[in-house]
Amino acid sequence: MSGHSKWATIKHAKGLADAKRGKIFTKFIKEISIAARMGGGDPNSNPRLRTVIIKARAANMPKDNIERAIKKGTGEDGATAYEELVYEGYAAGGVAVMVEVLTDNKNRAAADVRNIFNKNGGNLGVAGSVSRMFQRKGTIEYDAEKVSEDEVMEVALEAGADDIVNEDGIITVTTSADAFASVADALNAKGFESLSADVGMVPDMYSPVDADTAVKVAKLINRLEDNDDVQNVYSNVEYPDDFDPEAAE
């Protein structure tokens, strides 16, 4: 399994778990609201908002929820002032971790993130210590049994995708961050139903860990993802093949 496909599959498994669906929708509401506040409520003229809406729809977020989040951001339905923050650090085994935060209380978020790192075998680093190991990319996943790889490849490449990989029953389309929305739109226009669609930080190289270290890394990531201020967590961990990160609670 390639690095990008592995990253996307893990994010899909984590992000779309039914038990966490409500929390995921809450995070999307915040992200949609701030995108609308910064660039306006029209996704056609606000690329950031358009990208978030594509991600939210791929996670089956109801249309009404999306529209209410946009109104919050544009001030039609009340708005909360959120700050965007990024924390960088290391988990057990030297695994690189990036944490994206949207918060209405910077001090609380900083204390919470630091506490989670400290209590789960990690440590925060300085700005730039980890981000240099990642690139922002888009990934769109499809069930290989439900769509044609050749058709997906033809449409995706024509729309500007960087790569298409078919492994373990998952077709993963990789794009630059800028090309994500146009590639997703082109694939959606052909009626292809995605398993997930996301723009995030993809590591240049992965860091394999043994079973014991995998448990420590997964616990740290799970605790971070459970925090209400945390929007996204990215790492370069490569878990053992038989390891389930969601089981490390």
From TrEMBL:
Query: HAMAP family, from UniProt?
Result: Transcrip_reg_TACO1
Highest classification ranks of the organism: Bacteria, Pseudomonadati, Spirochaetota, Spirochaetia, Spirochaetales
Instruction: List UniProt keywords, sorted A-Z.
Output: Cytoplasm, DNA-binding, Transcription, Transcription regulation
Under the heading SUPFAM superfamilies, the entry gives: YebC-like
Q: What is this protein called?
A: Probable transcriptional regulatory protein SAMN02745149_00880
Work out whether the entry's keyword set contains Manganese: no
| InterPro entries (alphabetical) | Integrase-like_N (IPR017856), TACO1_YebC-like_2nd/3rd_dom (IPR048300), TACO1_YebC_N (IPR049083), Transcrip_reg_TACO1-like (IPR002876), Transcrip_reg_TACO1-like_dom3 (IPR026564), YebC-like (IPR029072)
Name its cellular compartments. Cytoplasm
The domain of life for this entry's organism is Bacteria
Q: Tell me the protein family, please.
A: Belongs to the TACO1 family.
Q: Which residues form the TACO1/YebC-like second and third domain?
A: 82-237
Is Transcription among the key words of this record?
A: yes
What residue stretches are annotated with the TACO1/YebC-like N-terminal domain?
5-76
